[in-house]
Amino acid sequence: MDNISMKALDKFFKESSLFSEDRLREKNKLPNFKSSEQLVKSINSSNKSSTSRIDYYNRILSSSCSTDIIFQRMISTINFKEVIPLPKNNSMFRFVIKCFNNTNNVILGPLKISSGITLTDLPSLSIPMSHYHLNKNNFVQDNFIHRISENETEPMKKFIERLRFIDSRMQMLISDYIRHIDESSPIYNMLKKNNVTFNQNWIFTGIINKGNNNTEYINIRYFKDSFKGKKKIGTNVYCEDDYLDEMADLLSRDTFCYINGNIYPLIKVNYIIINERIVNNIPMVNFTCKAYFVDINFIPNSIHCSTKRL
Predict the structure, then answer these.
(1) Residue 82's CB: how many other CB atoms inside 10 A?
(2) 212 alpha-carbon distance from chain centroid
(3) Interatomic CA distance for residues 303 and 260, integer angstroms
(4) Paired residues of 134 in beta bridges
(5) Contact present, 238 and 46 (Cβ < 8 Å)
(6) In this structure, what DSSP letter does residue 214 have?
(7) 24, 52, 163, 193: which one has the fewest Cβ atoms less than 10 Å from its Cβ?
(8) Count of CB atoms within 10 A of residue 118's CB?
(9) Dihedral sign, CA of 59, 65, 67, 71?
(10) Given the DSSP bridges, would you call strands 216-221 and 236-239 parallel, antiparallel or unpaired?
């Protein structure tokens, strides 16, 4: 996507009363505050190559998916550690997901060989992903999406196959949980009210889901709320080993932006969100499996940003 001109950006923000940078500047009271268009300009001009976080990635991949046997062992030990209400919405719940006797996170990333990955592997193991920061109703989105095609590389085909295994495992665990639920479960009343059985009145939204015309998408999220003190958001953003503070700043805001780039999709599967929905006028319970980036790690020279709505 071509970067829009500063003149067009100025016009865009002047016409937008909902997303005022003046209000953000006043709210943050920062002496070096940068507008969203300044952040976009800086990000688009600073996709630079550096060293890598490869050692860290190889360390966490080695215990989860470095070989088929290790991956199968991880899959077979995935379980629900607990079911708890959402912190900001007690009408919704989440399964907390763990593996290896509740000691590890579920980790997955694409690999070339079982011995690990190198810095030079990252471009060929990355996928193009897009992020629209606000939806049509101006709600902040926390997801990057990748459209699955028929032209994926062999490592990506294997990564996608493993994502499907994780989704299938989650569906099986949900069905078993419903089949053996008792009144002590926090979601017992929700399931009873909606006449949910192990094979009826519930739907599953996976890491891979379908859009129009049966097109499939990979959906990976980031933590917008920071829980690391000085960081802008709760997920680290890198270009190889360079921390992209301006990109994190952009993702922390409530103003519109569009981001596209090649990202190494190293994920951890943290939760399944549980909420009530109406589907074709039928009350149902929806289970959404949420995968989050370990890091959002962009490939150098691949990032394109804009504040122009498409």
Answers:
(1) 11
(2) 20
(3) 6
(4) 140
(5) no
(6) G
(7) 193
(8) 12
(9) positive
(10) unpaired
Query: Token digits for 287?
Result: 């289970």
Could you tell me the two tokens for 278? 């109406």
> Is residue 218 within 8 Å of 160, Cβ to Cβ?
yes
* Segment 69-122, tens digit of pLDDT: 999 999 999 999 999 999 989 999 999 999 998 889 999 999 987 668 888 899
As a whole number of angstroms, the distance between CA 29 and CA 231 comes to: 17
Residue type at position 299 = I
CA torsion sign for 304, 40, 248, 27 is: negative
Q: 50-61 burial, b for 16+ CB within 10 Å, e for fewer?
A: eebbbeebbebb
pLDDT tens-digit readout, 249-284: 999 999 999 999 999 999 999 999 999 999 999 999
Angle between helices 6-15 and 36-44 (to 10 degrees): 150
Cα–Cα dist 39/245, whole Å: 10
Structure tokens that stand for 242 in this block: 């360079």
Identity at 182, one-letter amino acid code: D
DSSP string, 85-146: EETTEEEEEEEEEEBTTTTB-EEE---SBTTB--GGGHHHH-EEEEEESB-TT-PBP-EEEE
